[in-house]
Here is the input.
Amino acid sequence: MSEQEPIIVLENVCKYFGEFKALSDVNLTVQKGERIVVCGPSGSGKSTMIRCINRLEEHDSGRIVVGGKELTSEVKDIDAVRREVGMVFQSFNLFPHLKVLGNLTLALKLVREMPKPEARETAMRYLERVHIPEQADKYPSQLSGGQQQRVAIARALCMNPEVMLFDEPTSALDPEMISEVLDVMVELAEEGMTMICVTHEMGFARSVANNIVFMDHGEIVEANPPEEFFDNPKHERTKLFLSQIIGH
Amino acid sequence: MNFDIGLVFESIPKMLVGLGLTLELLILSSFIGLVLAVITLLMRISGRWFLVAPAVTYIYIFRGTPILVQIFVIYFGFPQFEFVRESVFWPFLREPFWCCILALSLNAGAYVSEILRGGMLGVDKGILEAASALGISKTQSFIYITSPIAIRLSLPAYSNDIISMTKATALASTVTLLDMTGVARTIVAQTFAPYEIFLSVAIIYMIMAWMIQKGFGMAEKRMSRYLKPAAG
Amino acid sequence: MSELVGWADDYFWGAMVVLRVFAVSLVLAVVIGLIGSAMKLSGSRVAQTIANAYTVVFRGTPELLVLLIVYFGAAVTLTAIGQSFDASVKFIDIPPFWAGAFAIALIVGAYMTETFRGAFLGVDPGHVEAARALGLSKFQTFVYVRIPQMWRLALPNFGNHMLSLMKDTALISVIGVEEIVFVAKIATPVTLKPFTMYFIVALIYLCITTVITLAVMAMEKYANKHLVSSR
Here is the structure.
C-alpha cells in the first residue's frame, strides 16, 4: 500500500438541518482504489455524509477534501469537484425527456465540451459496459428499474470520475432486479474504481468492501474490514443493527 | 316571440368581418405576452431583489385587476399626461387598437409567467440534483433540463390562458373597436335581435376555443411521448 | 387633490355596489356549480348532456357577450311577453344589477361545475361506503361526508374562481350599473384627470382581490389543519 494522498478526507465534519444534528464529528479517509460500504439505520446520516462529498449538501463545520481540493463555497471548486465524483441515486433520476443515449451524452457535451460523434462513441462504450447497448434509443420510461439504474451508472461513468458515490442504489428496485445492478458494481470494483456505497446489501458488502462503516445518529460508530465487522462487532449498537438486518 | 334562425345563419358571415381584428388582437397580444412572460419569469427567479420586486409587483397588479379596467386606464387615462402626448409613442397610444394590445399583452405576460413558474416548480428535484452531480452548471441545467420539462407541464394551463385571451379580446368592443363583438353590438343596435346575433358570434368564439383546445391537445401529446405509457 | 375628495363618497357607494354584485353572483354561482356537478356525476345521460352543453357554452363564450345576451335578451323576452298580455306595453327590462349578477353567476358557475366535479371525484369512496354502512342516508352522506371533503379539495381552484368573479364584476359598467367604473366615467369630464380616476378604480379592485386572496389562504389553512404534516 503506497503512501499517497487519500482521495477523500472528512475531518470533524458536522451538519445541521435546523436544530437537528445530522452529522456529528465525522472523520473518514478514503484511499484511491478503496471500496467503502456505509450502513446504518435510517436517519443515521449516511446519505447526508456522501451528499456532502459532492456538495449536494453543505457541511457546517469541519473539513472535506476531495481529490486534493477543499470544499468551500467557491463555485469553480464545486463544478470541478463534481466532474471527478460520480453519483448514483436511489431513484435513478434519469432525464425523462432525453433518450438513454441523450442522458449519457448531455454532460459530455455541456461539461467536457466533447463533440457529438465522440460523445456518442463514449456513451455507447459505457452502455456496453453495463450490458445494455441495445437500449440506447429508448426513453427511460420504457426501461425496467434495473435497466434504468444501470443507465444511471453508465451516465456517471461517462464522465470518467475518480470516485463513484452510490446512495442506496438498489433500495428502489424490485428484488429480481437487484442482482443485475450489483453485478455491475462488483465489476466496477474489480476494475479498481474507488467507491463509497450506502447500502443495505450485506452480501455485496462482505464480498466487495475493503472497509465497512457503521453510522448511527450522525456518528461513525465503527469502521472495520468485513471479516472484523461481521464476525467481531465491537460496539453494542453495531451488534444490535447486525442482528436486526441479518436475522431473516 | 319568435326566434329567427335564418337571421343567425345570415349574420355569421357578417361576424367574420370582425374576425380579422379579433385574431390580430389575439395573436399579437399572445406573442408579446409570451415574451414579457419569459422576461418576467427570469426576473422573478433571479434571486436579486431589484429584479424580483418589480416582477412580483407587476404580476400582482395585473392579476389583481380586471382587464376592462386595465384597458380603460391605458386608453382613457394615459392621455392625461403631457409626457405621453408628446412622446414618440403617442401615435400608438392614442389608438384604441394599440391600447388594447398593450393591456392584453401586459395581462398575458403576468398570467403566463406564473404558469411557466408553476411548470418549473413541477420539475422533479432529483433530476436537477443528478445534473448538478454530473457537473452541469445551473444555467445549462435550466436551459437543457428544466425548460423542456417545464414547458410540457405548462401546456394545459397555457392553453386555458390562450382561450381566456380569446374571450378577453371581446373587451376591445368597449373602446370602439370593431372586432367580432363590436360588429355584433352594432348589428344588434340596428336589428334589435340580441339572441340571434349574439348567439351567432358566440358560436364563432366557441369554435375558436375548441380549435385552440384541440391544437394544444395535439402539442401536449407530442411532447409527452417520452412519458410512461399508462399501466395496462 | 381637493376635487378627488369630493368623489370619495361616490367611489365608496360604487364599491358597495360591486361587493353586492359579487356576493349575489357568488352564491348563485356556487348553487349552479353544485347542481351542475351533481348532474354531471349523476349517471343520467340527459342530465350529463345538458350539463356538458352548459359548461362548454359558458366557458367558451366571452364574458362580455354573455352579459350582453342576458341583459338585452331578457329585455326583449320580457317585453315580448308583456306585449302579448297588454299591447300598450312599451318596454320591460330587468334591472342591470340582476342581469349582471345572473350573467356572471352563469359564467363562473360553469367553472365551478368543473371544479366541484373534480373535487367530488377526489373524495375517498371508502369514506362514503363507511357512512352508508353506518346507516346514513344518501342525502346525509352527501351533506356530512362528501361536501366537507370535496370542499377541501376544491378550495384552491375555488379561490381562483372567486377572484375571476370579482374581476368580472367590472363588466357590469358596460350595461349601465352605477358602480366604480361608472363613477370614473362621469368624474373624468369634471376633474379632467382620467388616469387618476381610473387608477383609483384599479386600486379599489386590487384591495378587494387582495382581501379575497388572503381570505382563501386562511381558509385553506383551516381546511387542512386536521392533516398532520410529515417531517
